[in-house]
Amino acid sequence: MAVDLSPPEPLLPVPGVRLGTASAAIKKAGRQDLLVIELAEGSRVAGVFTRNAFAAAPVQLCRARLAVRSDIRALLVNSGNANAATGDAGLADAEATTAAVATALAAGSDRVLPFSTGVIGVRLPVARMQAAIPEALARAQPDGWNLAAEAIMTTDTVAKGVSRQITTGRGPVTVTGIAKGVGMIYPNMATLLAFVATDAAFDATALQALTQELADRSFNCVTIDGDTSTNDSFIVCATGQAGGAPLHAEDPDYHAVAEAMLSVCETLAQAIARDGEGATRFVTVEVTDAIDRAEARQVAMAVANSPLVKTALFAGDANWGRLVMAIGKSGVPGLDPARIDIALDDVPLLVGGQPHPDYVEALGAAVLARNAYTIRIALGRGSASLRCWTCDFSYDYVKINAEYRT
Hints:
alpha+beta, 2 domains, L-amino peptidase D-ALA esterase/amidase
């Protein structure tokens, strides 16, 4: 039921990256549910992860390994099982599966990162995954991105991927990314799994700083239901195959590459909101005139996470009182209703905290009947702004989650 979202066009290969999938019957037999992303020697990897206290075993292992080294050789991804809340045994399972990849690549186990998504509280089928890993590696190809996007899906209805290619002083640079989302999505992080690769060169410090910035400006601006997953992981891989010295903030090419990467991340983040569980509307919440971005985020997320707002959006009910309620409960100190303007797309609802004199409900209802629109909120306090992306709550959201394990 994704909102105006189609499967990706053929995604561009990134020099230095090969991707292969296999079936390990992790949750259901017969689907490609295991992915190996092989990286060329010399690649650098950075990551941002969930802040959930029940961080899954693969997240724990990724954090520990990336804290020591960034020269990662492979990523191992599985869908159908989150390997979360599985204790020491789950950590041992993550270590055992990554060891199988490391052995096949003749690399150290600490150079393989694991990622899992799916049901919480269930052990991984380690033996089946170990048996499937050689097949995934044997099938690995530079143009395997589209199959990889499908392999990481759980309740996604559409695979998510996008590519960008730009010209720099070093020559052409490619950026390709894939992601999966659906439910249990809210910062920090605000996606379940996302993998972006470029053939540009970065050193470890610059890449980690850029990865955090990209997350804050894209995936941390998405919410489906206000619940933060145990497994959220956003990984950026830089293979350096485009040549030249590692990029840094003062380099003329840095900002062009960073903007291409941000474009990929924003497109993936919006695709996640468009394919939220049961979504029938894609909604942008834009907050302007805030004192700072943190304040703008606080208001935007109060609106985007409100069940009353989200159910009204599903019904197409132009009950702007729910927007007022959500803004008012956001907890921003000193918020002055008399300075707040609210609009739906270009239809003003409130000006200076009071109903716009020309507003009639038919105008608001016409906007809410669209598949996609923007809720605009001006706080009248400063010059900072932020956009977040969300969806409505439909009957299908309840059905999907009620039947998630059946």
